[in-house]
Structures are given as C-alpha cells and as structure tokens.
Amino acid sequence: MQREPRRTERDAAPSTETCALADGRTLAYAVAGDANGTPVVAHHGTPGSRLFASLLADAAAENGVRLLVPDRPGYGRSSPPPDDWNRRDWRRDVAALLDAESVERCGVVGFSGGGPFALTAGASDRVDRVALVGTVVPPADVAVVRLARVPFAVRALFRLAGAYASVAGADAVVGQYTDRSVSEAVSRAVEDDFREALRQGARAVARENRSFADEWTGIERASGPVRAWHGTRDENAPLSAVRDFASGSDVTLTVTETDHLATLLDRRGEALRWLSET
After folding, report:
1. 191 pLDDT above the threshold of 90
2. CA distances (Å), 128 to each of 48, 107, 214, in order?
3. Does residue 22 carry a pLDDT above 70?
4. Residue 203 resides in a domain
5. Is 60 exceeded by the pLDDT of residue 264?
6. How deeply is 95 buried, as exposed, middle or buried, from its count of CB atoms within 10 A (0-12, 13-18, 19+)?
7. Is 54 domain-assigned?
8. Which of 58, 109, 191, 253 is most buried (most C-beta within 10 Å)?
C-alpha cells in the first residue's frame, strides 16, 4: 500500500501507526525523524516499547533517518505472539512492517534486549547495516535473566517494578539504567517507555529474558556490516560478552567509559549517522 509521507518537519514528534500481520496479529509502531530519510528500524530494550522513539527522534531528524520503532509482540499495543513464536519469527514481522511503510531496504539498530532481535532482523537481505548499542548477548549471565528460569518470577518482579515506578516516578525508572543526571525530557521519555512496555503485563519481558538465557544458536549472520557501541560501566549488559561476540564475528566494537543508558545517549547520533551512510 503506497503511503504519503507523514512529516513536513524534520523534528516532528513520533506518531503511532499499526499494521496487520499475516497471522491476524497487530503490530504497532512509532514513526519519527526525517520522512524522506534513510529508513531505520529501531529495536527497544527489554522491557520497552515504540515510545523508545522519543529518545532517538531528534538524532534521527538531524542525521536524515526515517525512524520506525515497533512494539515487539506483547509489548505496548502489539498483539501477543503465539506460543511457538521465537526470535526468527521476528524477521517476518519486520518484513511486514517494511511492506506496510513501502520500504524496500533499511538499516536496523538494537538497544539492550533489542540487540538480539536487531541481529535477527539483520539476517534479511532487506537490511543493509546493523547497529548495536549496549546490547545483550545470549546466553546472558545477569540477575534478571537468571530469575527468568523461575516460573512467574520475572512477571512478579516487573509488576512490582511498575507499581513502584507509579509511586516513585521517573527518577526511579531512570536509575535502573544510569547514574548520570539526565534532562527532564530524557527522564520522561524513559519513564513513558517503561510504563508502555508493561501495558499488557510482564509476559513479554519474561519470555524475552528466558530466551536470553539460551545459547545464541539458530540466528544467521547479519547480511551487512555490524557495529557495536558498549560501555565499560554497563551493569545491565556485560561488556565481556560483547567483546567475546565481536572477537568471534565480523563486528566493529567501540568501547566507551559509560553505563547502560549513558552509552545510548552519547552514541545514538553516531549510530544513526552510520546507518544512514548506506
């Protein structure tokens, strides 16, 4: 279906769209940035949502990027997946999104738990480049992934986290990802993203964290170049796992003296600029 550009200004705020998938599910996504720019599909963290677009919208507009940010299945406004759905099925969901937006080829970027999904999408011949920022590398040995092995534990944890965030506010959410002082706009965007991620509960969070406990098998190599940016102080996604992954693959790794969210804030423009150079 041919669509007219939605933007007349490069710095327009993200809007929410939906498309129908072949199995009857709905995929919700945000659109932001430069309507005539290089298409990039951005993958939010775990948990996360299409509202992640607010953290990237200005950088996308500045670097000539047409940003598409989908809610993965079960997050935000996207339908939950069937029981046998896995990361490889995500490639078909992304292809449907590209078709809905009349996009032939794109770049992809993944932050945190979105990294494995970005690499899965990147195995398609419709993807030119893959950027990874603070990415999780399965099998991930972090507390929340270990907890995911216990039935219902992660769902209970994030139900409590959502309730606590409602009382404590944005600072409590941001503090999970950085010890840096951030602007009110960033703080609000992180809080909104976290809340929207849990709109349908925490099943999607639990499902993804269980998958991160498994060996990274059955995922093809990205069809184009891959770059990763990662912080030495990242306590959410260990740098050691990313170093091992990069050393065994054709991945260019840039290491910075930052924590999880700070790496994204500092390097989002660089990552999107690199993706736009196709």
Report:
1. yes
2. 24, 5, 27
3. yes
4. no
5. yes
6. middle
7. yes
8. 109
Residue 190, token pair as written in the block: 């992180």
pLDDT digit string, tens, across residues 177-186 = 999 999 999 9
Give yes or no for a contact between 142 and 237, defined as CB atoms under 8 angstroms apart: yes
Total domain count, the chain: 1
CATH number of the domain encompassing residue 104: 3.40.50.1820
**Domain limits at 42?**
15-137+216-275
Which of 21, 2, 28, 6 lies closest to 196, judged by CA? 28
User: Which of the 8 DSSP states describes residue 7?
Assistant: -
Does residue 83 lie within any of the structural domains? Answer: yes
Nearest by Cα to 218 from 104, 90, 94, 102: 90
In a domain, 84, yes or no: yes
CA 26, 28, 30 angle in degrees (round to 5)?
A: 165
pTM of the shown model: 0.90
- The tokens describing 31, both together, are 């659109």
End-to-end CA distance of the chain: give it in Å, rounded.
25
Residue with tokens 């290089």: 38
Q: Which amino acid is at 93?
A: D
The distance of Cα 117 from the centroid of its chain, to the nearest Å, equals 8
And the tokens for 164? 């606590």
CB neighbourhood size of 17 (10 A): 18
116: its two tokens: 């494995």
The CA distance from 239 to 270, in Å, is: 19
Q: What is the mean pLDDT of residues 227-243?
A: 95
pLDDT at 127 > cutoff 80:
yes
